[in-house]
Amino acid sequence: MEDELKAAWGEACTKYTIHEETLSYFRKLKALGTKAYEDSSPEEIRGQLLRRADLFAGCANFTGSEQEYTVPGEENKGASEWHRLRIISSYFIYEGVRCTEEEEQGYYLRPADVCRVPTILVYFHGGGLVAGSRNIPQPFLKNLASRARCMVVNVEYRLAPEHKAPAAFDDCRAATRWVLQNKTRIGGHVDSQVGVAGDSAGGQLAASITHDVTGLAFQILVYPVTDVSQNTPSYREFVKTPGLNAVGMRWYIQHFLANEGQKTDPVICPLLRPSASFKGLPPALCILAELDPLRDEGQAYFEKLDAAGVSTEILLVKGAPHAFFLLSGHFKQITKAPHQKVQEFVKRFQSD
């Protein structure tokens, strides 16, 4: 089976050193009988991603508090129901937080003396805007909240094909603005710095939002989608390789786009934003996987940020596939450096 797995990587197997954790991960997926994207419905892919997270996401070392808030969506005159949308968000608070219940909807969260001005991180899950849920990044986010002593807002947003683009972008933009306007209500401080982050499609959402929402302090983009043209060397390298590949991305794009014109919409494709829009964006941390069709568009976005004078760091994780970042229960070695990098980056915006 080992030779068969390596052969599935084609020329990439000779060009790159595939980490043993990557090989063993796909060995396990093969044993589970995972279906290819092109042979699956959205419901089947949603189930597969949740099962994968259950098996490989690992445990959270977290003893703080978690509460729910209902966040109103933004009204869009072109869609009469959008203003009735409720975005459900979880607030993961590091150990030492006291919570007092208010009579009004939700909870009022008050940080204890551990940290006077906690950073607030607004996180958007991945899943190609078609699958995934806030449950998938939850173990990582709880660990981050504990280790970086920050607050985390974990956002649920509408998915395609039931709600095609730009629905997810509108939801996440509304959630981000609400957090910026309600920092003290959720237990932060008036001086708390707010940043956005996300993996894959979540990184796409985070990147797009930084161009439209002012007042953000930082952004963390984990192998983000920044363009849907699929015209990069990494797309040509990983056409039918194990895991997310060019064929799988085509499946996602076909499901989340409302029309062909959206392929050049800069809201959906943040790489296509004009250069002037990049000036003054918040500091960025970009984490990319070497064995990922999204690698080169992530690199291109980093370069555009850097060219605009944005303080930007990038980490390319060698031998890693797409989706490794949230699966530390299996990828124990290759998640160490990027997870540590994220913790250190978030701590820069903390005030004790």
TrEMBL record:
InterPro entries: AB_hydrolase_3 (IPR013094), AB_hydrolase_fold (IPR029058), GDXG_lipolytic_enzyme (IPR050300), Lipase_GDXG_put_SER_AS (IPR033140). The active site is at S200. Keywords: Hydrolase. This is Alpha/beta hydrolase fold-3 domain-containing protein. Gene3D superfamilies: alpha/beta hydrolase. Belongs to the 'GDXG' lipolytic enzyme family. The keyword Hydrolase applies. One of its GO terms (molecular function) is hydrolase activity. Residues 121-325 form the Alpha/beta hydrolase fold-3 domain. It holds the Pfam family Abhydrolase_3.
